[in-house]
Amino acid sequence: MFAILLQISAIVTVSTVHAKYSVSTNTILLNDGNRMPILSLGTFGKTNIADKVVKTAVIEAIEAGYRQIDTAAAYKNEEFIGEAIADVINRGIVTREELWITTKLHPEVGSREGVLPALRDSLKKLKIDCVDLFLIHSPDNLGGIPEHDYLSVWKGMEDAKKLNLARSIGVSNFNSTHINRILATSEIIPATNEIEVNPTYTNLELVAYCQSLNITVLSYAPFGFMVPRPFSLVPVVSTFEEPILVQLAQKYGKMPSQIVIRYLIDRGTIPIPRSVNASRMRLNIDVFDFQLTPEEIILINELNQNVKVYYFEGKRFLAFVEYFGLL
To answer: What family name appears in the similarity comment (predicted)?
Structure first.
């Protein structure tokens, strides 16, 4: 019964969120008044090949219509994204104002004092004066830093916004307890929370919680276990051949992967599909000419296996850190 009530509550919340969408610009209104594109290109990948693939992928994505790029200091690719941004702006493909650049604070920063120097380093690599969205990458002390405190870090994030080095500030991988601590001690409410959301990890409760506070959810790993996850120590069987996805793809004249992207948008979240393949990137962004019904969203929710792709502790954490070369 609780699960059913949660799904109904989420649908009601999404109806409110949809009122903030601008259909003409494909953006959503954040709680700080800024408008953010409702689809992003993910750039997380193996760091040892970032110099060979990231710049080209970002250029092709922007040429295909993407206006939000998601990166992080820990991804070790900000420099290549900066080169791509400079390229498309210099060629007149877009203006800086048309782009939304999201980056994340390096997990090795554990206090207020380290935030601004780290952000300025990211800005230098990205070749921009201000980032559109700046996130705390994780509430956890992933770097084993003495006296790590994400509440202190959040004060530094507020400093960045006040100095106009970041238009919006938010968090990533925070649960409701983490967010409640920020709300109780801080001036600025996070504009966003970037968390894992996909058909095999629907994360209904946390998404609904964030949306109830007008905190926009960005959904990473949007395809869950429907794409290969060679680093995962938890085998989960799920593919794009799930009957409900195939049925909806036939109904709307789309591919099952496009149904998944649209599902996340229609839940009121911002999906972050990751690809360096130009044709796949174009496929992922071709989702703005249809909309799923609340009943169809609930049917896709039933694919949930409550298993995450990315874990931030123990052997599962080390497995993906080593695979992507984040050490």
So the answer is: Belongs to the aldo/keto reductase family.
Residue (of 196, 213, 219, 195) closest to 267 by Cα position: 219
d(CA 317, CA 327) in angstroms, rounded, equals 11
The 3-class secondary structure across 12-29, one letter per residue, is: HHHHHHHCCEECCCCEEE
Could you give the CA distance from residue 13 to residue 266 in angstroms, rounded to a whole number? 11
Residue pLDDT, tens place only, 259-270: 999 999 999 999
Direct distance between the N- and C-terminal alpha carbons of the chain, in angstroms, rounded to an integer: 44
Contacts of residue 34, Cβ cutoff 8 Å, sequence gap at least 6: 132, 167, 168, 191
Distant-in-sequence, close-in-space partners of 50: CB < 8 Å, separation ≥ 6 = 75, 76, 77, 80
Cβ partners under 8 Å of residue 162, min gap 6 = none
pLDDT digits (tens, 9 = 90+) for 286-326: 999 999 999 999 999 999 999 999 999 899 999 999 999 98
CA–CA distances in Å: residue 68 to residues 93, 133, 183? 14, 10, 27
The H or E element containing residue 66 is none
Q: In 10 A of CB 295, how many CB atoms?
A: 8
pTM: 0.94
Which domains are assigned to the chain? 2-324 (3.20.20.100)
Among candidate residues 133, 181, 152, 142, the one with its CA nearest the CA of residue 321: 142
Indicate the DSSP class of residue 215.
Answer: P
Distance between CA atoms of residues 79 and 85, nearest Å = 10
CA atoms lying within 13 Å on the CB side of residue 152: 12
Q: Which residues form the catalytic set?
A: 75
What is the rounded CA–CA span in Å between residue 201 and residue 213? Answer: 21
